[in-house]
């Protein structure tokens, strides 16, 4: 009987390990394929059958990408837009989350439901209305339009996550700060806000990734102004410096370049991210 259970346990472990390997390959292979494609010369990219390892490693695709002024300008625009969106989302979102999580007033639940519902609409469904609004406000063709519209999907998520964190903090901390003479604002930014650092890092990083990877709004609101386009739009407009046909190698090189910063940020803040994703769900 014991041997039967031991055999089932080993079989389960083997199956679980095989599943982990399959998921790992499934998630990592696209990045690996982009990397080896970026390192291949043009003749290897067009040969059939395709090879899983480059026969000749070259950096000409990366060199061509870094010589592309439109790509570099898009990289800068993406960085500026993403950083400002994160700062505004965390600044406004932390105040709103503190009010919804710590203050007592009627209608809090419905306000949270409304905030959550704003994240349920697909981007394409609100694009016509946003286009009219951006055009009437005179922001069309500028990165200001991107900063404003990106907050539509980053700010509600930030408020929702941070609210659960502020709500989970012990009320005794706030009461002790008020007894010691702190004002409500001092209690917020000196006592409670530092305790939500894991949530701030998690929501900030996810907001940064969402703004960095966004394409639909960036294409629509900067279509006639190339100088305001972000890197996701710039990549789609590659005409090819090395290749005479579709610059597949340069596109893959550019994809690797814009992905690396996100990987580095996730690796740096991975502990904070885990704390941010789990601590708010546990009370006490």
Automatic annotation (TrEMBL):
Membrane topology, from the record: Multi-pass membrane protein
Domain spans labelled ABC transmembrane type-1: 75-269
PROSITE patterns assigned to the protein according to its UniProt record, in alphabetical order: ABC_TM1 (PS50928)
GO biological process, one term: transmembrane transport
GO cellular component, one term: plasma membrane
Protein name per its UniProtKB record: Sugar ABC transporter permease
Main location: membrane
Keywords assigned: Cell membrane, Membrane, Transmembrane, Transmembrane helix, Transport
Pfam (any one): BPD_transp_1
TM segment ranges: 12-35, 75-98, 110-131, 143-166, 187-212, 251-269
Compartments in which it is found: Cell membrane
Family: Belongs to the binding-protein-dependent transport system permease family.
């Amino acid at each position: 009987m014991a041997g039967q259970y031991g055999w089932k346990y080993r079989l389960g472990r083997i199956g679980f390990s095989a599943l982990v390997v399959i998921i790992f390959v499934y998630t990592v292979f696209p990045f690996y394929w982009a990397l080896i494609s970026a390192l291949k010369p043009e003749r290897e990219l067009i040969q059939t059958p395709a090879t899983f390892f480059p026969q000749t490693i070259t950096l000409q695709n990366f060199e061509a990408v870094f010589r592309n002024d439109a790509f570099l300008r898009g990289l800068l625009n993406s960085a500026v837009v993403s950083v400002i969106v994160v700062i505004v989302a965390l600044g406004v979102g932390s105040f709103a989350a503190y009010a919804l999580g710590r203050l007592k007033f009627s209608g809090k639940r419905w306000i949270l439901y409304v905030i959550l519902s704003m994240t349920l609409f697909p981007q394409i469904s609100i694009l016509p209305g946003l286009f009219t609004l951006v055009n009437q406000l005179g922001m069309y063709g500028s990165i200001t339009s991107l900063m404003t519209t990106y907050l539509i999907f980053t700010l509600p998520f930030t408020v929702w996550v941070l609210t659960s964190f502020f709500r989970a903090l012990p009320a005794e901390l706030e009461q002790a700060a008020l007894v010691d003479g702190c004002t409500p604002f001092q209690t917020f930014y000196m006592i409670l806000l530092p305790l939500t650092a894991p949530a701030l890092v998690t929501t900030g990083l996810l907001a940064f990734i969402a703004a960095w990877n966004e394409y639909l709004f960036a294409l629509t609101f900067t279509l006639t102004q190339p100088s305001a386009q972000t890197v996701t739009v710039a990549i789609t407009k590659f005409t090819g410096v090395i290749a005479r046909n579709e610059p597949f190698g340069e596109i893959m090189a550019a994809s690797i370049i814009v992905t690396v910063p996100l990987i580095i940020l996730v690796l740096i803040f991975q502990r904070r991210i885990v704390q941010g994703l789990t601590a708010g769900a546990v009370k006490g």
